Amino acid sequence: MNGPTPKKSWKEELFTIIFEANTPAGRNFDMALFVLIVLSLAIVMLQSIASINARFGPEMLTIEWVITILFTLEYILRIISLKEPLKYITSFYGLVDLLSILPSYFSLLFPPSHFLLAIRALRLIRIFRILKLGQFVREGNTIVMAMKASTKRITIFLAFVLLLSIMLGALVYVVESGVNEDFSSIPQSIYWAIVTITTVGYGDVSPITPLGKIIASGIMLLGYAIIAVPTGIVTVELSKRSDKDAMNTKSCPGCAAEIHDIDARFCKYCGHSL
Amino acid sequence: MNGPTPKKSWKEELFTIIFEANTPAGRNFDMALFVLIVLSLAIVMLQSIASINARFGPEMLTIEWVITILFTLEYILRIISLKEPLKYITSFYGLVDLLSILPSYFSLLFPPSHFLLAIRALRLIRIFRILKLGQFVREGNTIVMAMKASTKRITIFLAFVLLLSIMLGALVYVVESGVNEDFSSIPQSIYWAIVTITTVGYGDVSPITPLGKIIASGIMLLGYAIIAVPTGIVTVELSKRSDKDAMNTKSCPGCAAEIHDIDARFCKYCGHSL
Amino acid sequence: MNGPTPKKSWKEELFTIIFEANTPAGRNFDMALFVLIVLSLAIVMLQSIASINARFGPEMLTIEWVITILFTLEYILRIISLKEPLKYITSFYGLVDLLSILPSYFSLLFPPSHFLLAIRALRLIRIFRILKLGQFVREGNTIVMAMKASTKRITIFLAFVLLLSIMLGALVYVVESGVNEDFSSIPQSIYWAIVTITTVGYGDVSPITPLGKIIASGIMLLGYAIIAVPTGIVTVELSKRSDKDAMNTKSCPGCAAEIHDIDARFCKYCGHSL
Amino acid sequence: MNGPTPKKSWKEELFTIIFEANTPAGRNFDMALFVLIVLSLAIVMLQSIASINARFGPEMLTIEWVITILFTLEYILRIISLKEPLKYITSFYGLVDLLSILPSYFSLLFPPSHFLLAIRALRLIRIFRILKLGQFVREGNTIVMAMKASTKRITIFLAFVLLLSIMLGALVYVVESGVNEDFSSIPQSIYWAIVTITTVGYGDVSPITPLGKIIASGIMLLGYAIIAVPTGIVTVELSKRSDKDAMNTKSCPGCAAEIHDIDARFCKYCGHSL
Predict the structure, then answer these.
(1) CB A48 to CB B177 under 8 A?
(2) In chain B, at which end, N or C, are there fewer CB atoms within 10 A of the end residue's CB?
(3) CA nearest neighbour of D132 among D24, D19, D22
(4) Residues of A in contact with B224 (CB under 8 A)
(5) pLDDT greater than 60 at residue C131
(6) Which chains are within 8 Å of A by 3+ CB pairs?
(7) CA distance C208 to chain B (A)
(8) How far from the centroid of its chain's Cα atoms is residue A34's Cα?
């Protein structure tokens, strides 16, 4: 601090621009990226609408490929600028960045995979950092951590709901299959049981026999009651966490990990000084 | 207090009548306003029913314009009677009052906008003040404050649900679009994903391929589990707020016991009338 | 306690049989009542099924009238046996008992009202007392008291949801009415908005324009988020109450009120010794 | 412990293999069992799909019978290896094991009952023990215990919802039955009321009269509000329980009960040393 700042290497400069948002260059980079992501998503959606694709198909395809090449370049630059690129590549953001360019290349072989570009939506999560919405990031972290702490219980709960749906689906299949074409097989009946127990209720499949309706009513009441379980689980976890525990969202120069404790001076993933 | 009350200016009189409900004139003004709002809403609804509009169209239009002019006058009087009218104009109530008269004037240019008069429903919030439902207002505030404190978390949660719907919609589009006319484009598929993840389930769009149904089942179970998140958030906020005011603390004249249920008319310890 | 029990008057005897379940006669009376209620409900349901009514119509009508006359006699005896019959007549149980016989008599004038006999289902609440399910009654009380304490907040919340539905219904009406026959009027659109915001989602009415679908998606996400509010309210109330606070379910000889605090020695509604 | 381990009897050996997963033989046994259960479920589902059954019907039937015979043998061995087999037979796992073989034998008399083999899905609960997912078992226990503690309240709540559905169903029947074929009888209307109050909303039955729609809207808002009750109940129960209370999942050699307190040295069901 009290000596002259040592000149940054080009790698460090690149890192600051690409991974940080606290310099003008870094901020402009992030804004351009954000605009590209939104544009890219809009193109993917418009391409899927037959009438629009018929008129502007070639133009949209050109734009999409330009964006894909830019994203590919960005991905390569990110890897180059880091000291431990593997950590980034295997991180959540790294995987999202990779998955955001792959569908374009795969679509050369299997065209419909092209629409999987919608995964680029996940890149929008960066918007929170770009807009310096620190408080949102912190609140988001509280939710994510409560979800993580509840993962095991929620998993068990969903496994339980699935087992229940398998058995109830088979039961209603036995009751309805003879007279109701909707219940054409057990997998179809299980699909119906899930639609019912989660209270979604499309109505594309519904029972017509009195006994089927009675069982269906039981499943609905059950679904109505057990939705309480995941809610209780998450509520208890959330109430354990305090709003106070703020987080440091500065990227680690070593591995690009972004969430550090507020008092952390070294990255807890790679040991690099923050 | 011990000197003669200074005579109020006409502005102060106007203020008391329009903004307060603790004088006979103010109370009458509020009651008349309430009746007009309800009448106005009824007219708007009836106008939208073709058979009724065919018979009473001109009469209803006349009543509506009379009410609109009265509301416009009221809005002007409110502004005149205040010392700092800008505060009112930019407040929630001020905006609602303005938005409640604009659709009538806009409908001269674009007739269907006429039905946006339904926004007058918001003016009914005044009913709580008119009916002196102080306790309801207090409880309402607790809810509003808990909601405000949860706004950031709920926003993040809804943004997350939206991102999820975009990606899952695109995924099911890739799976279903070839064989199912319902999934005609990605935006349409995103609409379906939102209908499913929120457990609404209209059934106007539903998957028909086995893979589509499997993914749909996953989305339903996910939606069934993550509804726990906003619930947990609001519950935690609400539990932070206390409402001690629950009990009747009048002493019993018979035995001086102090805590009685709010509906008790006799002391439950000695039988004395309270 | 240490002297001979004074002979009970016939009124007191009647009271013991009709209102209490702790003597053999009282217990038999309650069991007979329970059987009659269930039989009566079964008859009402079967009468509504055309094919069954065609075959056993007259027989079922006879049974129903016999039960109605028995219930009428029981209602009169209840009034006679009490010292303050007005308290019973205006109590929850008193109103249910009255409403359980009225539809039969009204059906002489307006036949379909006959099916409102289904209100007899409410009489089944007595089953908890008959079966001496004290613990269930206590748990039920905890729920009822938490619901009562939440009534104001839930009312405000539902009023808010209703106002929202009125405005959103009108908004979607403006957007959809020209091209979608489903949205034929504002009341119909409000009905749709309620179906959507509560996540019921019949699908009998659904938007077809892109803008309509976007607004609908917003309403769904809103409904998905604000369901958190009543849940939070009730959870907070329930968590305030302890499982321990048991209740005394002995009927008051003065006014037949049934729920008294465990330490109450006098009825808190009429002051009579318990 | 300080003397030579006494040689196990063949019964004890069998017990270790069948009921424990901490020896190589026991682990292999459990893995084989798991594979058989999954295979069996897959067969049952495939058999229900007409096109697949037409081609591979006899082969699948053969596999199913082989599995059924293996499961029957396993059930007999389990009974033989225990000192107090009755405890196992009447336990949850014992009943599931029995119900998993019965449908095959019943299907000789009543073929469709064959599909009830889906109950074998319940046997998958053993997977948690096989995979040594102790933590999942512990979390699952917390949920199960919270559910058990809430059983009475949830039961009362569901009984209340059912009574409400009976009355509201009958009410809407009176309103709709004349003009709407969907509401053909009171039981059918009750089915509709349950579909609506639980927010499932198939849309196979829906009101068409204005009054019917108003009542339906009320039922939806009610259902939207009272879903708060089971949620509140379970949340309160869950928050009472601590994550810490770990459990001992070693099977009791006397009765095969699996969940014991961490400090238990004797089975609390049969007193056998653990």
Answers:
(1) yes
(2) N
(3) D22
(4) 161, 197-199, 223, 227, 230
(5) no
(6) B, C, D
(7) 10
(8) 17
B176, B224, B226, B241: best to mutate for the A interface, most A CBs within 10 A = B224
Q: CB contact, 8 Å: D194 with chain A? A: yes
Distances (CA, A) of D59 to B137, B191, D62, D115: 71, 44, 5, 16
Query: Would an 8 Å CB–CB cutoff place A202 in contact with chain C?
Result: yes
d(CA A91, CA A122): 14
Residues 6+ apart with CB under 8 A from A70: A36
Q: Which residues belong to CATH 1.20.120 in chain B?
A: 10-132
The answer for C203, left when phi > 0, alpha when psi is -120 to 50, beta otherwise, is left
- Residue B71: the pLDDT is 87
Residue intervals of chain A classified under CATH 1.10.287.70 are 149-240
Closest residue by Cα to residue D221 from B201, B141, C159, A217: C159
Above 50 in pLDDT, residue B248? no
Pick the more confident residue, D144 or C158: C158
**A203 and C203: CB-CB below 8 Å?**
yes
Task: Mutate one of A182, A195, A213 to test the D interface: name it (highest D CB count within 10 A).
Answer: A213
Integer Cα distance of C106 and C13 in angstroms: 33
Of C69, C53, C45, C184, whose CA–CA distance to C121 is shortest? C45
Q: Position D188: which residue type? A: Q
DSSP chain D: --SPPPPPPHHHHHHHHHH--SSHHHHHHHHHHHHHHHHHHHHHHHHTSHHHHHHHHHHHHHHHHHHHHHHHHHHHHHHHH-SSHHHHHTSHHHHHHHHTTHHHHHTTTSGGGGGGGGGGGGGGGGHHHHTT-HHHHHHHHHHHHHHHHHHHHHHHHHHHHHHHHHHHHHHHHHHHTTT-TT--SHHHHHHHHHHHHTT---SSS---SHHHHHHHHHHHHHHHHHTHHHHHHHHHHHHHS-S---EE-PPPTTT----EETT-SB-TTT--B-
**Position with higher pLDDT, A10 vs B245:** A10
Verify whether the Cβ–Cβ distance A118 to B199 is below 8 Å: no
Give ipTM to 2 decimals: 0.78
CB contacts of A199 in chain D (<8 Å) are 198-200
- Please name the residue of chain A whose CA is at the shortest distance from the CA of residue D155: A225
Q: What is the CATH number of domain B149-240?
A: 1.10.287.70
Comparing CB atoms, the residue among B152, B174, B202 nearest residue A136 is B152
Mean pLDDT for chain B?
76
Contact at CB, A199 and C203, closer than 8 angstroms: no
> Which one of 1.10.287, 3.30.420, 2.60.40, 1.20.120 gives the CATH number of domain A10-132?
1.20.120
What pLDDT does residue C123 have? 74
CA distance B156 to A128: 10
Check if D140 contacts A (Cβ < 8 Å).
yes
Chains A and C form CB pairs within 8 A to the count of: 9
Angle at CA C55, nearest 5°, toward C49 and C57? 70
The count of CB pairs under 8 A between chains A and D is: 144
Query: C198 CB near a chain A CB, below 8 Å?
Result: no
pLDDT (average), residues C183-199: 89
Q: Is C144 on the interface with D (CB under 8 A)?
A: no
For B12, the token pair is 């102060």
pTM, 2 dp: 0.80
The nearest alpha carbon in chain B to C212 belongs to B191
Give the rounded distance of the alpha carbon of A116 from its chain centre.
Answer: 13
Asked if pLDDT for residue D111 goes beyond 80, the answer is no
Q: Do D161 and A221 touch (CB under 8 A)?
A: yes
User: Which residues in chain B are closer than 8 Å to A135, comparing Cβ atoms?
Assistant: 152
Q: Does residue C154 register a pLDDT over 70?
A: yes
